[in-house]
Design goal:
By secondary structure, the protein is an alpha/beta fold. It has 8 helices and 10 strands.
Length: 238
């Protein structure tokens, strides 16, 4: 079971904004990696190389954005294609808007675990019953993305998919799934312990990254730039 993280930034400013002393995209890569997502793909405009510069030395793969006219659905497809190019066995992707910068690494882990139990379902994390991000999309459902209107925004894309495919919500108690970076961390509601996971253990919330200092190097393979975006997600075996 391989679940990628597809981090989508609409602008260099979104990717590079400072979040607790780190560039947003660098911090998001760290959280995704700590939570167990592989591969981690960053899709963002990068006219001067600043985004790829921030990713140097991490495990992330940079993917050039799809053409603007492809719309948000095209950007998601582009990211999934990049993930499949890196790891062909990728069977799901966490679609992760870069503005959702407070998501906890344990939320990533919990969504991956839930995918193992419900491999065909689109999964949405919730906080106090409100669905949020990142959304786990099985690769088997990419055909639905190809038929989306280019004008649909990410929330509308998810709503369309929910109406078409098997889906579930997963209550995780993480306010970061619904509060974006416009809400300061100090103003976030507290974590609320989720129900015990079906796997039979509970997570220590935030422990995966709590002990890492801001200037500590990230682990993982080196940056693997992804070239020109492929137009379509390739067919998967089986």
């Amino acid at each position: 079971m391989t679940v990628a993280a597809i981090i989508l930034a609409a602008s260099p400013e979104s990717a590079l904004r400072d979040v607790e002393g780190l560039a947003n995209v660098r911090r998001l890569v760290d959280v995704a990696w700590a939570g167990g997502a592989v591969p981690v793909v960053v899709c963002a405009p990068d006219p001067d190389g600043a985004v790829t510069g921030e990713l140097a030395g991490t495990n992330a793969t940079y993917a050039r954005p799809a053409p603007t006219e492809a719309g948000p659905a095209g950007q998601i497809l582009n990211g999934i294609a990049a993930a499949l190019n890196v790891v062909s066995e990728t069977d799901a992707a966490l679609v992760w808007p870069a503005r959702m910068g407070w998501v906890d690494a344990e939320t990533v882990t919990s969504l991956i675990e839930a995918h193992g139990l419900r491999p065909g379902a689109l999964l949405r994390p919730t906080f106090r019953a409100t669905p949020g991000w990142p959304v786990l999309v099985p690769v088997a459902h990419v055909d639905g993305l190809r038929t989306m209107d280019a004008g649909l925004m990410p929330d509308d894309i998810v709503a369309e998919l929910v109406g078409r495919v098997a889906n579930e919500t997963v209550e995780l108690g993480d306010p970061g799934v619904v509060f974006d970076l416009d809400t300061p961390r100090a103003e976030l509601p507290p974590f609320e312990a989720p129900p015990p996971p079906p796997a039979g253990h509970q997570h220590e919330w935030g422990a995966a990254i709590a002990d890492r200092s801001d200037d500590a190097p990230l682990e993982g393979p080196g940056l693997a730039p992804y070239g020109q975006a492929v137009a379509e997600v390739p067919d998967q075996p089986g």
